[in-house]
Write a structure and sequence with these properties.
- The radius of gyration is 21 Å and the shape is elongated.
- The strands form two sheets. Strands 4-3-2-1-5 form a five-stranded antiparallel sheet. Strands 6-7-8 form a three-stranded antiparallel sheet, covered by helices on one side.
- The protein has two domains: 103 residues, no CATH class; 51 residues, no CATH class.
- A hairpin with a 5-residue loop joins strand 3 and strand 4.
- It has 191 residues and is of the alpha+beta class.
- Helix 2 crosses helix 5 and helix 5 packs across helix 6.
Length: 191
Amino acid sequence: MEYLFVLSKQNGWWLKIDTVEKLIDYHQKTDGTRYEGAMERLLKGGDPREMAENTVDFQQRIKLMQDRNFKYMMAAVMKAEQINETVFDGFKALKMEAGSNELRTLKEFGEIYFNSAGGHTYGIEFTQFCRRSELIFPFYSKEDIRIKKYKNGGKHWYAFIGDMQIRDGDKSKWNTYEEARRVSERVWNQQ
């Protein structure tokens, strides 16, 4: 399967999904790791409310409340209480709710976007994109910027960052090396 990653002007990289098959594939490849840390934390640490209450240091409590695994663990515990089942049933119920919500979004808008943390939205305006054969979110270093001119007598400069060709609207080639470099660095700063 081919994956399309898009670069939003304000919010970094997102995976664009526009079919139910791609949504299923996404979940098959990510669900195992999404809740793994929260389940491990639950098995080792016990009740998340007690963990929060027993964290006396204010800065440590803030850090705990911002931890993704802690948030998932707390949500699963609360969901389990709501449905009067085990915490593991709470995790399952969370996954089902999220999947149902995602399907509604896909049906209504024709596409859904996921960030690397698993958050999703719709209607993203993007400036760049890259296609990959593996579900690995792009992240480029400044050293990944390449500016090249084709050998067969071409007079334009082309800009790349890693496996992505840079575009500026409809423009994908520039008259000078400096212009291509400037656009590349601006795009690199967006991620």
